Amino acid sequence: MSVTEANRRAELLTAAVPLDATTAFLQQGEPSLSAELTRLADAGTETVVLIGVRLGASGPGHSWLRRIAAYWWRERAGHRPELLVAARLADSADAVAAAAASVKPITGEEPGLTSPAWDEVTNHRHQVLVCRGPRCTAKGADDNLRSLVRQLAEHGLGDDDVLVVQTGCQFPCNQAPLVSVQPDDVWYGQVDPATITTIVADHLIDGRPIATHRLPRHRKEPRTRAED
Question: Of 14, 72, 152, 227, which has the fewest CB atoms closer than 10 Å, so is most exposed?
Fold first, then answer.
């Protein structure tokens, strides 16, 4: 369901093997859910049971698994297998089998992928980019994300104030875990949950980037036409 599972795919593959299952991802992982459903349908599979797994601090809700599956089902040309979706998400690899005990079929009547509420860019003042590359993830990026979401909520800040985005590798990897704040062009390295608390209070609310953990920026001067 989220970036965390894409980074922990080996764990999920181990859990999938005894169930004669495969893995697919809603975001930032391959294969995508749509691609895997297409592969299974092309192979003549008659029934597919979808079990959503969310291991991290954040990620789309269970309804998005049904939305994406239903969109694929409606758009599919040719053979369409029966799609059954587990009624709840599994919160660990060990809970996958239990989650499959209760399923609900996809009918094609599920909500689509668009909504008037998602038509415009939010009015956020800041965009916080949380690196979820392999090193940052290994060093606690998920804990930083959890702390960031909690701190923003405690201060009453939503997407129209601070837009949180999880990214792939941002560099410099030796400074992991990394967080950058835009449009201020401020980068923080070796961040932990306590640092996140200070970033929210001092930088995002008071407008004062913190000195500790801030990384220097070494920009190259733009080349002039004469130099080309």
Answer: 227
